[in-house]
Every structure is written in structure tokens, then in C-alpha cells.
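Friendly challenge for the regulars: who can give me the C-alpha cells for this chain first? No prize, just bragging rights.
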Amino acid sequence: MTGTDKTDFLEITDLTDVEIDRVLELAELTNPPQILSGSGGVIAFEKPSARTRVSMEMATAQLGGHPVTVRDEEIGIDRRESAEDLARLFSGYGRFIAARVFEHSKLERLAAHASVPVINLLSDQSHPIQILADLLTVRQEFGQLAGLTYAWVGDANNVARSFVLGAHRVGGNVRIAHPEGFGFDATTSADIAKEGVPIFDTRDPREAVAGADVVYTDTWYSMGQEAEQHERVPVFRPYQVDDSLMADAASHAIFLHCLPAHRGEEATDSVLDGPQSRIFEQAHNRMHSARGLMLHLCGGGA
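First reply, four minutes later:
Bragging rights claimed.
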């Protein structure tokens, strides 16, 4: 059975700018409708995450539902059971399926065979649910999303992809600075071009950050890339976000990081813990934005 009247959230571009705004409005409801009462959702993890599990479980409970978290050793996508069979199975247990996977194609296969919404909690390609939290944080700070300048400094990874696409979708001006050889891959570049993103791409972090309203970075090596640490750190060292770099941004600029941080590498403690940092507000907004997304996808946003 394939769902034909449900909406999945695999990429930030699965939502229009109007829909993103609506999700963020729903995220800030202080007394959200209990649309998951008597039900819940399945939250599946191929790779672990503190913020993702806690925020999704809390958001589900705040909508009256029961979250069922399953780990890789329990599901073994394509080892114990195929993605297609798991999609059919989990569709009968709750109102949504959320999954944090290594290969994005597994999410696409889950979505193709599920009869409930499928939510991307992170893949090798994208991290759209993180970007909803980021945009909520920016809107809470500035009261708007459009017309702001969003700067990414560091590795052009899956979070950067979703950040660029999301910032453009809400009317932002997008800049990215990364070392030579660590830009977007061909698939992401093609997707960005297809969306018509007029991205400012530079090797100079100061060019990217100059006058920016939002400065965002992430780890220089992600989960599964630890063996590359010694190779990557010297290459990325000039892209560390420190007080000097933040001084090039607008005086009102905020600093974001999706966490966990490798303190002293991609950002200094003085930035991570400084007055412009919003990293913990951003992390807490993972819960609020997830709640807003579930209201939107599961029919509670009317």
C-alpha cells in the first residue's frame, strides 16, 4: 500500500515558503491540539542522536501521542527487513514514521511505501528538520526571515545543503565559504541550481560573513568521518569561527551551530558561549519545530 494523500518531509524544499511560515507559527502554540492522542509515531535510528531523539519524543508527547523509538539493531533496514516492508509495518502502528539514516535513498523508499507521513531526521544528503529549528530561531531573533543574509562557514555538508535551500526558500541571501575541494557535490549543486539559488560561494570566510545577520557552522568531520579528522583539521583551521570573524558580521548577528560541537575546532568557546550565540535556543527549537511540523503533516494545522 502506498500513501497517495499524505505529505512527506524529506527535504526542506518539500515545504513552500508559506508552509514553512505556517509550521513555525504552529511551533509556537502554547497549547497545541492533541492530535496524536491515542496514537503516536515510530522514530527509527540507524545512527544515534541526543537532540533528535529527545526533541522528537517530547514533541510527540506534547501532541498527546506516544513515541516509539527503535534502534538500528532492532530494525536493521535492508539487513533484517527491507525499507519497503518496514514502511508498511510501521504505517499500521502510528500517525507518522521518522527516520535518521545513512543513505537518503532509504528514506525515499520508506516514503514510497508508507501510508503515513515520513519525516527525514537526517540523511547523508540533507537535514531539513534541523533547518526548521534554525529558521524558528532566526525568526524569534529578528521577527522575519526574508531579506536577511545567511552565511555558512566550513564544510559544505548535508546540513549546509538544507541550510542553503531553506534560507533561499524563505527569501534570504545566501553565502557559503569552504576550503577548496570541500564544496557541494554534483548532485547538490544541481539541486541548488534547479531551485534557482543565487548562492555566493567563496573560499574566504570573511567575504561570506561580512555584514551577515546569521553566521552558521558545523563540525569539520561528521559521524562516520572520524578517520579523516587529522586530514581535515589543518585544512579547515582557517575557517574557525572566532571573535575576530564574528566581528566582521553585522553587530546584531547571531551565531548558530547544530551541535554537537567540537569545541576549539570549528568554533571557539568564546563564540559558542558568547552573547551572539543562540546554539541552545536553536537546540531547544528542535522540539518546538518538530511539534509544528507534525501538526502540519498530521492534519492539526487547520
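Residues 30 and 206 are 40 Å apart (CA to CA). The longest strand covers residues 40-45. Your move, everyone else.
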